[in-house]
Design goal:
This protein has 21 helices and 2 strands. It is mainly alpha-helical and 426 residues long. The protein has one domain. The chain has a two-stranded antiparallel sheet. α15 packs parallel to α17, α16 runs antiparallel to α17 and α16 packs across α19. The longest helix has 28 residues. The radius of gyration is 20 Å and the shape is globular. The termini are far apart.
Length: 426
Amino acid sequence: MGELTGKFGAERFLVGDGIKRLFLYLFGATLCAVGLHLDSPASSFFGLLRIIVEPDYLISDYFYVGGRGAAFLNSGILVLLFTSILVYYRVRIRGISIASIFTVAGFAMFGKNLFNVWFILAGVWLYARHQGESFMKFIYIAFFGTSLAPLVSQLMFGLYIPSPFKYVAGAAAGLSAGFLLPSLVPAFLSVHKGYNLYNVGFTAGMIGTILVSLLRSHGFIAEARVLWTAGGAQDIAPLLAEIFLLMILVGNMLNRKSFRGLYDMWNHPGRLLADFVDIFDFPLTLVNMGINGLIVTVYLLVIKGDFNGPTLGGILTVVGFSAMGKTPRTILPVMGGVIIGSLSKGWSLTDPFVQLAALFGTTLAPISGEFGWKAGMLAGYIHSSVVQYVGVLHAGFNLYNNGFAGGLVAGMLVPLFEALRGRERR
């Protein structure tokens, strides 16, 4: 540990990588322990097998497919494996590291599994080899790029293609998607200028649209579906509250038993690539993660929403990106815009896509941070409509559908906001 005096706060301790790695490993172990507590080991094992052979395009709730125990176990094991990859490559644990691991954990509740993610990673690895670069340079693109993992599962297990051709087709799709991502992700960042935090989701939506169009032109069409488990608040919400309160407590203790510097963090706009661990260090980041986790958990409780695989994915993604751009000041206006949008359009707040839009729509949090809460609410309002209809383009094979929609919304609104702000300053 050492001392840090930064632009945004007073002197504070720098937490070493050992503690951050321990945090990620404990997070993964906790998910595994919860899974084994919710179901027997045998039930969880067979549930994992069902999850692996399930076509995983949106929305495929793993609570529904394999059971709660298997979903948590799938998530926990992937967290442990992906954290081990970071450790193996000696990657310094930053905010983007935490965001990527928590995103993997969240979507491992409804789309990513112990089988389908590796083809995407292998595709990125092949790209690195082709370019003569280290895989470490593209490691986060590989982690986030597993949003396209359902392409693998659908071709291998969802469509009627004779063996062994279906396995070849699934592997080829995953490898191709992974190979395309590293060159396209930086290019698409310029479309929304960093105001859509799920930039890989925007890129993956574009790739998914192209690949799905090719599949459709050959007669392969996946039927729309929603596998969704209702309820769950009684068991899951208290567990989440305990975890998030513990994050706040530990962060407070590591920050010399204070919340000093939190106000500065909450005044940060959070635009990509705003790495809160680099800027404010790990303790304050942990506090911010816990507070945002409580906010979205309480939101679902208030609207009497569901605590299942997809909504847990949303909660964990919000918490993960609280290490990389999201604060209460920036997420609440976007959530408010989604709420107003759903009510004004005759939708129920408990409709599955509305619940997910309120959680994942916080990808547009930097708009609130940069242009104010009114702009954030407008972005959330528009996003609530866009996200419902753009999924048809990629047929649900891009798990980050809100990231795709968020890129479109930010790409349209940000130039407008910048122009209006420029006029006001003249």
